[in-house]
Every structure is written in structure tokens, then in C-alpha cells.
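Hey,
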Amino acid sequence: MDASLKKILESLDLSCFRPALGDLGLSSPEDVTFLLDEDLRQVGLNLVQVRKLQSRARQWVKEDVAQQAAVATDAPCRPTHRKRCCESANEDERIAKPRLSEPPRPFGMCGRNFPRRLIFIRHGESEANVNRKITATVPDHDLHLTERGRQQAAEAGQRLASLVGEGSVRFTYSPYTRARETLNGILRAGALEKWPCQEDVRIREQEFGNYDSPEIKEYHKEKASFGPFYYRFRDGESPADCWDRASSYLETLRQSFADETAENHVIVGHGTMLMVMLMRFFQLPVGDFDFYKSLQNCEFVVCERKKGIQALPIFSFRPTVKVIHDVNAGLAMAAAAFRDAGVRWVCAGWTVFTVENLVMSEYKVEIKKYWGGSGGPGAYQTMYSTLSGLASFSIFAAYWRFARHGLALRSPSSTERLLAFGFRVLGLGTLSQLMPPINLGALQIALGLYEPPKDLPPQVRGAMACPFDFNAHAGRGEVFGITRLSRRPELAGIGFFGIGGALVATTATQMAFWGLGPVVSFSILALHSDRVQRRSGEMSTWKEEQTSLVPFLALLDGRQSWATFYNELVMQNLIAAALLAAFYSDDPKFELSYTWPPGEDKNYAGLRFKTEELPQKEIWDGNLDSCMLSHETEVPKQD
């Protein structure tokens, strides 16, 4: 790697990526221009770092080509010791000037009152993001958020609250409806309503004309050939016009920082306008406009002042796209979840349940012995059942109280719903194999479709009419059927079922109840059960060798046969479990989506919406349990 590329990496504070970039084969800045974004992001660079590195590399290539051309075309040096003053000054300046320009500085942002963070947030998904044709009849400034857009605004509010903590905040937002609704969702979800908000019309989106005309597609083709940055739509604007608005706004913003008291300044705007504003803020060349991609819906760009620097010589980019893709945001969300009252109560209940089972099973013999008398075993069982019942009751009580409230999670995707259904089938199917086979012939007898021969013995006729065959598993041995999957199938089945519920959870309490609690508790209890049974001799060495505690492990490593396992499955029970899982998939309560009962305190929760039920001409106030409200309307009473 040559010195010029090392110098670029040092100027961008990317020296830590030098070994990884070297492994990609980079030896000079020119090599950067030949790599795709995906190649650079694989080594750990985020999107903004990739764009800055590409911009600096292209700048170096241009300067290098210009310098080579100057060397080839300039007149030879005069063989004299005397130099003319102008010629000497220009030559000294050219020699002293480094080929690599200085890194871009923020837009004149200096001063001791500059906020710690300057945060740019794009609005959530709007109606035009889903159906562009709507702009032919609805003005761009009157577009509302979709159901997904409101969820994105809620998630952005939670991420913002975890980012700023207890610090003070000031908001500036675009007057467009979708930006105002995004701000409302952020304020409600993050409990940030107490901080001041200011509207600024200069940060509105690029104007594409009053309404989209039928020739809009032809305009976009013309824009591609003309140049995206300078192309002005009919009766609209170009990004260059947005640049002028951004310059005016940033100058006002810079002057306002003289009296700044907020630690965080948040700007809620639009894709093109925010990108132009960032380019103007960091003084990036307009020629690179084509290489930058617009922010995703509710994506963050956080410019954070480094600790110990009061004058703020430069900012660092830290974009956050989604919480589940950002480790730092994920840790912040986990910390916020454990501060949630519902999560604490549910986890406390699961902890009591686990500890109680561990103690009662570990000291089973001692408790019976110290109890004394013939009633020892019965008393032990009564105490065990009572303690387990109380612990379970505390878990369900906490879930019932807090499941609809507290920290909200994003709405599950279609893939997560499909996975949830698969885990439900797997869990219920595992549990169904522990039950006696369902006697389908009994249903025909009960419906009168079939009558057993009267010459059969009464015992046989009674068994044929029984809905379960209790003798089907008699004499099958120690390892058969579902025990080939796991030697603790009851715990594995409940665990699978819980994971299915966690995948569609919409609040942190629901996630703790269905996912975290069962998985951790049953894993510990399964390991302890093996230990107790191994110590007491209840589990034979042969069974331990032939089966596995981890589900599917014995089948995957060859200790058990897939064909034997399949042949021993009770298919009618498995089909009944799949039908039951499909039935619960359509049950909104099972999917943990709730509506607010009348008179409840309208705290923020992870609710699902039906957009068609909401009036489209009023501003959504950020409350997920209400309609979209304007400032003049009152909250409608629920039926």
C-alpha cells in the first residue's frame, strides 16, 4: 500500500481498516474507484465512510492526472538562478501544497455552544413511497405516513431516546404532513414531548411540481441525461435549488448556536433535502451528488462531537438504519428493555419458577426425609405443586398486566410470521407426540357414520369408541418416537412454542414472556433434570448414549435414524397440532396484538393499525391507539 493511500486513510480516521483493505488488494487510491460498495462494506466500513473514501480517491485521481498533464505540457525550467516573483510564488505554492486536500470541514460550525450531537432523521414510509401514482391527485405536502411508516416513527423515537438519554433536545422539522407525523411519533414513543419543536419551511422536500404529470417518467429519463443535480422539474426545483435553501438554513442554524442550550439538535426532514444539507454542511463537492444514496425511511445520520473537543473541528458520521442491525443500538435497546417494568416482573417470575424447581428437585430426598412419616411423599408433592403454581401465577399475572404496555418493538415481518408459524407447529407437534394417538374411528362412531359390530366384546367396543388409544405406546421400550428427537421432549416442545410467540411479539414484555424466559428456564431445568436422573439411576446409560438433550442432535450425528423416527411419529396427532397452530395464527390475541380497552391510560404500545379505518385528512398525533388527529380535533371516544 503506497503512501498516498495511507495518507487518505489517516486523514479520514480509517487507519484501523488498513490491513483489511490491503487484503482486498488495494495498493493506491485509484484502486478504490474500481471496488463496489459491497466490497468496502464487507471490511467493516459503513456507508458514509465508503462514500467519503470514494470521494477522496476520485479527488486524488483527478489531481494526479492534472499533475501528470502539467508535467507533460509545461515549458522546461529556465537554466538561471534568478526567478521572477510571480513565477517563484506560484511554484513555491505548488510545491508546498500537498496533493491530498484537507478533509472537509463542517459549515463554519465553531463555538462553545455547539450541541453535542446534530441528528438528521428522514420521515417514515409515506403513501407515495408505496404508491407513487397518488402524487397525481394528492399534493406532495399532504401525504401521510402508512402503517409501516408510523411503526418506523415509533422505533425512531425509541432509538433517539436511548441515544440522547437524559440530555436536552431541540427539534426542527419540515412542515410537510409526513414529517410532522414522524415527529409526533418520535415524541410520543420516546417520551420527548417536553422539548421545544420549531417548524422551518426551508427544509421541505425538493419540489417536483404541483402534481405529478403523465410525462413524469419522461422527465426522469431527461434528468438522467441532463444531470441529476442541475435538472429542474417543470414548475419544480432542482437539487441545486435545494442547495441554496440548505445554505440559508445552515447559516441560520449556525447563528442560532450562539444561544444554544440543548445538547442535541434533531432535524426531521426528507431524503433529497437531507442529503443536500449534509453535503453542504461538510462542504462536499456537488460533482459527487450522483454517488450518494438517499437516506432510508427513518434512517439516522448522527454527527457527534468528540469528547474533550469544545470548538468542534470535525464531526463523525454514525448512521443507524435498524436497531436489530446495529450492535450499539441493540445493546441500548436491550438496556431499555430491562428497565421496562413488565420485563422485570416477567423475568422475576421466570427466575422464581426456575429456582423453585431446581431446589425442589435437587433436595427431593432430603425434603421427604425431614418431613417424616408416611405423609412425606404426599406433602412434598403438594408443596412442589403449590410453589410451582404460585410462581407460574406470578408470570401470567405480570404478562396480563404489562403485555400491552411499556417498550414497543417493531411490527413482525412476513418472514417472521412464517417462522413463528413453523415454530408453533414444531412445538405443538412435539407435545402432541407425548399424548396417546387420536382415535379417528371414534369420531365416526360419535357422528353415527359407523357402528361397531354388535358381536364384539364390550371391552373392544368401548375401546373403539374412545377418542384416544391409551395402549398404543405399551411395550415400546425406553427410546421411541419423539424421544429420538430429544430425551426431554416436553421442555423442547414448550420452548419451540415460546419462540414462535416471541417472533411475533410487539412489546418487550411479550418477548420476555414467550422467548427469553422459557428458553433460559427450560434449558437450565433440562440440564439439571439430566443430572438428577443420572445421579438417582432413573436414566440408564444406554438411553443417555442413544439420545440427546439438545433437540435433533442425536438425529444429526447418526445416533438415531430419521426413517425410524418418521415411522414412529403419530401422524394424526401431528396434523391436529398443525391445524391448531394455523388456528392460532389468525387469532390477534395469540399474535399479541391488542386494542386499548375503554378508560385505559393511553400509554405507548406496539399496536397494529388498519390504515383504511383512519381519516386521511388529519394529522396523526403520534399516539398509536388513536386516529390521526389534527390540533383542532378532540380524541374520539372508543366504543
